[in-house]
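Saturday, quiet lab. Running sequence design on the structure tokens for the scaffold JK sent over.
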């Protein structure tokens, strides 16, 4: 592994030097970092908290209105614990 190898690596990924990815990569990063949130109403109390994608615990009780990730919302709706609550 010598200087020429390092130069080849730098030429493959030039944005790593400036820490600013190319524009086409920026749109992918921006789109992937925005989670799709769904608004739901809890219809049954949950005894145990749910751990969200960011690690926070959600303790949900009947009547609560929550905005959560699509995965959690769809799972709770499919389990009969929540219903969609669009605005």
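Result came back. Writing it out in full:
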């Amino acid at each position: 592994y010598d200087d020429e190898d390092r130069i080849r690596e730098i030429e493959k990924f030039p944005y790593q030097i400036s820490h600013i990815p190319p524009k086409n990569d920026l749109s992918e990063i921006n789109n992937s970092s925005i989670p799709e949130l769904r608004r739901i109403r809890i219809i049954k109390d949950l005894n145990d908290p749910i751990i969200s994608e960011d690690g926070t615990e959600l303790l949900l009780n009947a009547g609560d209105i929550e905005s959560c990730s699509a995965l959690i919302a769809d799972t709770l709706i499919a389990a009969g614990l929540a219903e969609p609550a669009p605005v």
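Notes for JK: The mean pLDDT is 79. The helical segments are 3-12, 15-18, 23-32, 70-78. Ask whether to fix the surface positions before the next round.
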